Structure prediction request, 410 residues.
Amino acid sequence: MAEPTAAEPQSKAYFQKERRKYTPEEETKLERQHFWRIIDAFRFYRFHVQEQVKRAERQFHSLSQRHKRLLPGVISNLDRVRRCAEHNQEVLDAIVHNGLHMFENVEYGEREDPRKARTSSTFDMDKLKSTIKQFVRDWSEAGQPERDSCYKPIIQEIQRLFPSDQYDVSKVSVLVPGAGLGRLAWEIARLGYACQGNEWSFFMLFSSNFVLNRCEEENALTLYPWIHQFSNNKKSSDQTRPIRFPDVNPQSLPLNTDFSMVAGDFMEVYSESECWDCVATCFFIDTANNVLEYVDTIWNILKPGGVWINLGPLLYHFENIANELSIELSYEDIRTAMIKYGFLIEVEKESMQTTYTENECSMLRYVYDCVFFVARKPSELQFNGQEDEHQHNSPPAAKSSRREGSNRLT
Ligand SMILES: C[S@@+](CC[C@H](N)C(=O)[O-])C[C@H]1O[C@@H](n2cnc3c(N)ncnc32)[C@H](O)[C@@H]1O
Prediction:
């Protein structure tokens, strides 16, 4: 067995090799390639689903005549799936159309060879299908129960901690990292708080840009989010049932609302200390390679007396991904570390049952048994992280000027 002391430098070298720093030119090129790869994925969707449908048709036609006669509805259902995919593609095309020039200060130029037909990976197709399901969670009436279980507890805590009869809520700054399609951040802004969502994935960014900036009429658009699910359907029609979005007009925020979405890696965009009164994370902290780096950032950017509200599971996104650092801590470990940082845990619930982009008609449904907490950065920091008895009810310090992310969305 290798000496433990020898193993450590070896594994460090392993991850350093894989996670090398790029020059700014290389970064720009990679970013541009990534941008176009995601655009290609949006455009490839139709072909991907058609392939799935063709495969299902081939399987069906391989059955005996006797078996086929017993199943009169299968081919017509597959036809419906195909038509629903065509419709989804129209929405995806509209999202891409609006995404091409959505960044104020970054242009991704033209694709190197626009004529080349591009296929997309299963990985990207899975991401795209998850993004389609995220419309249900964030912007459909069907997603209301899920939003009630995930977003409501966070919003209620914000309102309890910063009540509008005691605070000028327009000066209470709330950051939502990993904002997805932006509904939580939008709801917080709707209540008058100065709220910024931050998101890293182009899949999410293109889609949130579309829904937040281009959709006005309630329930005017349709998606078929469940057509990709060929298993666990009780009725064939469950697979092709539509959802309408947006359930509210995203542009109905009052004119003076301070609401924005900023693109980029949370840890890179937010490096300015003591800017935020509240950081609200929902299903986010397990997206880190090392969750303690998120805790570092949150600790740094919170104003003294500011609060971190978190709800979510610990389904570590990098677990089992080759060549990626993935530190999979238990909640107990994270909690211990947070207390060592100096966080004061004011509210804690270890069993909040929620779902995530749930298909309510499916025969397979997952429930997350989430942790929920409110942790305060003390207003007067002490070296040993012990509680300062006077800090609990301190008002947020005056809002400092907002760092403008380099990829701020229009
Ligand atoms: C599981 S989703 C949760 C989305 C949303 N908060 C919700 O509850 O529906 C996690 C989100 O975090 C985003 N994300 C992951 N790593 C990120 C990072 N380093 N910076 C910003 N966003 C990130 C992902 O793209 C994804 O949209």
Q: What stands out?
A: Residues 137, 150, 177-180, 198-201, 204, 265-266, 282-284, 287 surround S-adenosylmethionine (CB under 6 Å).
